[in-house]
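User: Show me sequence and structure for the first protein, then do the same for the second.

Assistant: Starting with the first protein.
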Amino acid sequence: MTSYQETLPNNELVENLIAETASINHVEVIENVIDSLEQDDSAMVSQTPDGNYLWKFKYGSVEVFVQLSGTSDEDTITVWSAVLKLPAKNEPELMRYLLELNCSSTFEARFGIIENQVVVISTRTLAELSPGEVSRLITIVATIADNNDEALQSKFGAA
């Protein structure tokens, strides 16, 4: 019987991994993801003096927004897209349907309400956030919004 000795990573390896994660340029990663998803050169970005960024781009039949609240580990990336204006027809049925979708098919995103609009939204802190996770968050919100907006508007739109 062969015996294998378990080796733990040394402190240098751990420090290198932490440094790699910390050195990710989230603005660059977000812009690369948006470049791969946007349509009709629709991407726009604004930056505030305090380091917040807001991007907007078209994906299918929806507009997608990406907000970066800063670049520290405690800051957040929030991605959202409006899919239906409220008030809507048969809101109790709509709310039940959205809760069912939240439970079964929204992955890291969720349906919610912001300023009398049903949105698909996802928020995550930047701590240990990889480029792949940034891509996944933006893609999930854009895809779920685009896949659901027209059906929601058709069934529940304009009360």
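Switching to the second protein now.
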Amino acid sequence: MHCPFCRHPDSRVVDSRTSEDGTAIRRRRQCPKCGRRFTTLEATSLAVIKRSGTSEPFSRQKVVSGVRKACQGRPVSEDDLAKMAQRVEEAVRGLGVAEIDADEIGLTILPPLRELDEVAYLRFASVYQGFDSLEDFETAIAGLRADRRMRGEDSDSPGAGG
């Protein structure tokens, strides 16, 4: 790290702290040449490779806006969407990659969205899993029903999400 004051090519770390949200590290540094102190902020970057081949930084807000469309008319709050987007980001960062395809993010959204709202899940899945026919929807619905039976939930009970 170059000193911003004298441009010396080295510096010594005096103190390190993690940011409140845990996504960055704040470091106090001291230049061995001029003795002045300065602060650096180190953050990991995660790039999303879009279908067009272009790259852009990962954005929780883009996750929220994409899922919001699937949740229209459903009992899903903005807070629910924000929590889901955080789960998606944690899952993607947990893969330990610096770049990820946009389609992979779409697929990573599916499990937490399924827990949040099954109708929104079906809407979103129809796009990201490329449903081509009614049979694709029927298969997805059958999977949801099978999961409910395994959890011991009655699919005809009130509040069962369908």
